């Protein structure tokens, strides 16, 4: 399976690329927006696509033309304002969905955020972030794509444990980025995750076994 990772240079995206490259039967296509990022992945033997997520749907679709699945891990980051959040986390996500459809790619996995499907749990400090994630998820659910929406809790850079807790609704908790990446790759290999949206935090159940409970 060829997998286009949008946001490949992000913290989760880099883990996803590495895990896909280490897996058997999968190849990563790292979508990045800077030449130096492209060079970095190419030095690692990873196929790349140089595309600005704020560009056209057609350029994203061109990057996806050889893909069997799209993983959207892009985000504007915690240091940008509401404008960039809307353009990347919302509009960028929706353009990526439209591009996948244009390229004939059915499988689409998106990284969202815990609890954003409930307005009363939106972040008071940055409600625009929660709104962007929420409406990107809603759009994906209505897109006709074979989607999986993963809503992780607070992200850490601790080493992954390979164990998580998943459910449609969970209380707030933390999870290593590496475990989110592992869950993405496991979801690609598990058709039972198609059409599913779920919260995910650190837990005591192996990722593959946790996904089977959905």
UniProtKB/TrEMBL annotation:
This is SDR family oxidoreductase. CDD domains: SDR_a5. PANTHER family: FLAVIN REDUCTASE-RELATED, UPF0659 PROTEIN YMR090W. SUPFAM superfamilies: NAD(P)-binding Rossmann-fold domains. Pfam families: NAD_binding_10. InterPro entries: NAD(P)-bd_dom, NAD(P)-bd_dom_sf. It comes from the Bacteria. Residues 7-190 form the NAD(P)-binding domain.
């Amino acid at each position: 399976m060829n997998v286009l990772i949008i946001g490949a240079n992000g913290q989760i995206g880099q883990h996803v690329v590495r895990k896909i490259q280490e897996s058997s039967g999968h190849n990563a296509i790292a979508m990045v927006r800077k030449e130096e990022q492209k060079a970095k992945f190419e030095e690692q033997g990873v196929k790349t696509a140089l595309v600005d997520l704020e560009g056209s749907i057609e350029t994203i679709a061109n990057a996806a033309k050889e893909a069997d699945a799209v993983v959207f891990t892009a985000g504007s980051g915690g240091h940008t304002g509401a404008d960039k959040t809307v353009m990347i986390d919302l509009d960028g996500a929706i353009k990526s969905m439209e591009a996948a459809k244009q390229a004939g790619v059915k499988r689409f996995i998106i990284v969202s955020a815990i609890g954003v499907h409930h307005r009363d749990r939106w972040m008071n400090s940055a409600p625009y972030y929660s709104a962007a994630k929420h409406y990107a998820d809603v759009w994906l659910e209505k897109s006709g794509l074979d989607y999986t929406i993963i809503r992780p809790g607070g992200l850490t850079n601790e080493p992954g444990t390979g164990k998580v807790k998943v459910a449609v609704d969970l209380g707030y908790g933390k999870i290593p980025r590496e475990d989110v990446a592992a869950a993405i790759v496991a979801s690609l290999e598990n058709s039972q995750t198609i059409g599913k949206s779920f919260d995910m935090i650190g837990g005591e159940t192996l990722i593959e076994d946790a996904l089977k409970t959905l």
